[in-house]
Amino acid sequence: MNALTVYLVIAAVLFSLGLFGVLMRRNLIAMLISLELMLNGASINFMAFNRFLAPEPAVGQIVTLFIMGLAAAEAAIGLSIILTLFRRLRSINIERARRLGG
Amino acid sequence: MTADFFTLGFAHTAFWILVGIVFAGAGIAVFPRNIIYNILGLVLCLAGVAGLYVYLGSLFLGLMQLLIYVGAICVAIVFAIMLSRPLHLEMPKRKMPKMVLGGFSVGIFLVSIVAVLWKTAWQAAPERSTDWSITTIGHMLLTRYSLVFELISLVLLVAIIGAILTAGFSRRLTS
């Protein structure tokens, strides 16, 4: 429980599950959800290194706060793009959005 | 001594239950086809990650995780779920080759990264300060990391204005 490796393995598994979701799902919102899982895996990594190794233990928390802010911005932009895409194509399936490519 | 042992055992058990909650939530967030289950699994997983932050020593970040992720981002995603296909329709089947290929590549990634972090002998920094209170975070945000702080606020502002532009005005412009 009090080992760095345990937290790193948890973060790696979380990241891999998110990656699997991004690769598998065709629903855009589901892909966004998987992306949040990947961001959380990265945050756990930062917090674990912050707790066990870092010379200044406050820096990891600051990085994690920045990740949260970026995730909020990403969610806002992603959801608005999905909304516009749904108005144009009447669907949020990623395969239907193929015609966006030139 | 025994009381100490009991407290420690309780903390261990609670930690592994927490890890189970995180993995179960992540599994629910990725595997079911129904998007409602996905978002509920994401909420479960993010709450578990907040608990992990408390175990890592930062109650503040656990609270921020609950506030920002569970309270704001998940609710925003729930608003967008109405765009998904109706739940009573039958789901099309998954393509098996795609599943196998995706699982294979993710497996390679996971095995390699776990092997790397198993092989590495992590070394702590020679001098570690022990101060990681909220006060220190605030001081560092306003002194050394002030540029990044301002940049994040700018990015958030631009993102919100962009979201309003893409989602709000396009209807008026197109119809």
From TrEMBL, chain A:
Its main location: membrane. Its EC number is 7.1.1.-. Belongs to the complex I subunit 4L family. It comes from Desulfoglaeba alkanexedens ALDC. InterPro entries: NADH_UbQ_OxRdtase_chain4L/K, NUOK/Mnh_C1-like. NDH-1 shuttles electrons from NADH, via FMN and iron-sulfur (Fe-S) centers, to quinones in the respiratory chain. The immediate electron acceptor for the enzyme in this species is believed to be ubiquinone. Couples the redox reaction to proton translocation (for every two electrons transferred, four hydrogen ions are translocated across the cytoplasmic membrane), and thus conserves the redox energy in a proton gradient. It comes from the Bacteria. The chain crosses the membrane at residues 6-23, 28-49, 61-86. It is a multi-pass membrane protein. Keywords: Cell inner membrane, Cell membrane, Membrane, NAD, Oxidoreductase, Quinone, Translocase, Transmembrane, Transmembrane helix, Transport, Ubiquinone. GO terms for biological process: ATP synthesis coupled electron transport. One of its GO terms (cellular component) is NADH dehydrogenase complex. NDH-1 is composed of 14 different subunits. Subunits NuoA, H, J, K, L, M, N constitute the membrane sector of the complex. HAMAP family: NDH1_NuoK. It catalyses: a quinone + NADH + 5 H(+)(in) = a quinol + NAD(+) + 4 H(+)(out). Signal peptide: none annotated. GO terms for molecular function: NADH dehydrogenase (quinone) (non-electrogenic) activity; quinone binding. It holds the Pfam family Oxidored_q2. This is NADH-quinone oxidoreductase subunit K. It is found in: Cell membrane; Membrane.
UniProtKB/TrEMBL annotation, chain B:
It holds the Pfam family Oxidored_q3. The keyword Transmembrane helix applies. Its main location: membrane. It is a multi-pass membrane protein. It is found in: Cell membrane. Its EC number is 7.1.1.-. InterPro entries: NADH_UbQ/plastoQ_OxRdtase_su6, Nuo/plastoQ_OxRdtase_6_NuoJ. It catalyses: a quinone + NADH + 5 H(+)(in) = a quinol + NAD(+) + 4 H(+)(out). One of its GO terms (molecular function) is quinone binding. The chain crosses the membrane at residues 6-28, 35-56, 62-83, 104-125, 145-169. GO terms for cellular component: plasma membrane. The keyword Lyase does not apply. It is an enzyme of class 7 (translocase). It comes from the Bacteria. Keywords: Cell membrane, Membrane, NAD, Quinone, Transmembrane, Transmembrane helix. NDH-1 shuttles electrons from NADH, via FMN and iron-sulfur (Fe-S) centers, to quinones in the respiratory chain. Couples the redox reaction to proton translocation (for every two electrons transferred, four hydrogen ions are translocated across the cytoplasmic membrane), and thus conserves the redox energy in a proton gradient. Belongs to the complex I subunit 6 family. This is NADH-quinone oxidoreductase subunit J. It comes from Desulfoglaeba alkanexedens ALDC.
